[in-house]
């Protein structure tokens, strides 16, 4: 199959560089608001003041949860369906609340509806799962601040909002990763945005992709408790377990997003009483990289984005069960920008496969089998 065109991001896995729409990703991540990133991804240029006001207003107009969707989420929570699956269920229900179910009519407004809804569905479902009363969306807060507000019921401090925005901007897009590919395959059949995003969330959930940061935090907490970093890690390698937060299909050096998020997490943890947790994470990283050279000598396995994602999100006070869905709050923008590109291309994605099954078989009646 020919390569899939992608005008959104360019990754150099040897040099550890990530370019987003022509910008070094670090510049966008640290300077842009999340609303500016949304505009950039849907329109391919940075917004001027008017354009930013317009996109912000449109996002606000979608900042509510439809009663029919809420009912479904209540049912899912009563059945103890885990958070990311509840988010997937909630997103698939957006079909009931879309202006049009036809992709040629959905356009950018359909994409904005989904982008605005993901944090609302996530925060609402999280509170339902925890038996807490729902928090109404705050119409005067930005996209990221409102997400924190709806999760906690408290207005977040500006430093936390900025940290969350840097995180969301950092993970918004990353080439033809598993979830983005899933979205593009669905879109390539001329399906619809809701179906594409629902499929992408299914791919996102797995621990080899967006499901990794929760287990990273769990692992760090276990090592903090045991106090034996090297013994814990050796035990994992001896059992041929994968170390979450390490390794990448494309990067042969440290993931540049991990470098940025390690600086961001260092800043958050400096403000905390439990400062030594960040130091523990650095010690674990150093020991893990040394042991990876010993156990996997022929592989270039380095730290990936999920390792310091765990430190940033935990530093913001989010429990590990929220990590994959918080990643989704951001990556949904990348998925939808890819969907728009795929729509424009209008070419079905059909990878070839190598047949590895048996040959020379003949039909045999059931009595003779
Ligand atoms: N821990 C231990 N061994 C590893 C790890 C790891 N984290 N990553 C790769 N390896 C080993 C594999 O066991 C394999 O060894 P073997 O050939 O001796 O059996 C070898 O390296 C190659 O493994 P592949 O799965 O082929 O490597 P690939 O580059 O395709 O995998 C992946 C990438 C899935 C991310 C892998 O590194 C991994 O499982 N990492 C842990 C999960 C994780 O952190 N995922 C998040 C990735 S970032 C993101 O998706 C946003």
UniProtKB/TrEMBL annotation:
Keyword Transferase: yes
Gene Ontology CC: cytosol
Reactions catalysed: oxaloacetate + acetyl-CoA + H2O = citrate + CoA + H(+)
Catalytic center residues: 248, 306
Keywords assigned by UniProt, alphabetized: Transferase
Signal peptide: none
Pathway(s) where this gene product acts: Carbohydrate metabolism; tricarboxylic acid cycle
Entry-linked Gene3D superfamilies: Citrate Synthase, domain 1, Cytochrome P450-Terp, domain 2
GO molecular function: citrate synthase activity
Any one GO BP annotation for this protein: carbohydrate metabolic process
PANTHER family per record: CITRATE SYNTHASE, CITRATE SYNTHASE, PEROXISOMAL
Family as reported in the entry's similarity comment: Belongs to the citrate synthase family.
The protein, known as: Citrate synthase
């Amino acid at each position: 199959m020919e390569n899939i065109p992608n005008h959104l991001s360019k990754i150099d896995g040897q040099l550890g560089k990530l370019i987003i729409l022509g910008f070094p990703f670090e510049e966008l991540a640290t300077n842009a608001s999340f609303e500016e990133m949304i505009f950039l991804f849907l329109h391919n240029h940075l917004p001027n003041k008017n354009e930013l006001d317009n996109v912000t207003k449109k996002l606000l107009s979608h900042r509510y949860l439809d009663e029919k969707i809420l009912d479904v989420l209540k049912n899912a929570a009563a059945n103890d369906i885990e958070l990311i699956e509840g988010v997937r269920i909630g997103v698939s229900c957006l079909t009931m609340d879309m202006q049009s179910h036809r992709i040629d009519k959905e356009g950018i407004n359909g994409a904005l509806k989904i982008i605005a809804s993901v944090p609302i569905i996530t925060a609402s479902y999280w509170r339902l799962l925890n038996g807490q009363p729902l928090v109404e969306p705050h119409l005067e807060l930005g996209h990221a601040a409102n997400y924190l507000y709806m999760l906690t019921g408290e207005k977040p401090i500006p430093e936390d909002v900025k940290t969350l925005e840097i995180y969301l901007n950092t993970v918004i897009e990353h080439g033809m990763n598993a979830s983005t590919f899933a979205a593009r395959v669905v879109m390539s059949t001329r399906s619809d945005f809701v179906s594409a995003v629902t499929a992408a969330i299914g791919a996102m959930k797995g621990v080899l992709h967006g499901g990794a940061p929760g287990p990273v935090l769990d692992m760090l907490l276990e090592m903090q408790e045991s106090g034996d970093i090297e013994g814990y890690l050796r035990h994992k390698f001896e059992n041929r377990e994968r170390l979450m937060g390490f390794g990448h299909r494309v990067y042969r050096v440290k993931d540049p997003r991990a470098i940025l998020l390690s600086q961001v997490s260092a800043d958050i943890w400096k403000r905390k009483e439990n400062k030594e947790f960040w130091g523990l994470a650095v010690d674990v990283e150093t020991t893990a990289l040394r042991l990876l050279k010993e156990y996997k000598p022929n592989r270039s396995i380095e730290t990936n984005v999920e390792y310091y994602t765990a430190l940033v999100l935990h530093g913001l006070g989010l429990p590990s069960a929220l990590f994959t869905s918080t990643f989704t709050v951001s990556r949904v923008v990348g998925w939808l920008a890819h969907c728009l590109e795929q729509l424009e291309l209008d070419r079905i994605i059909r990878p070839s496969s190598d047949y590895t099954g048996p040959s020379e078989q003949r039909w045999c009646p059931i009595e003779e089998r």
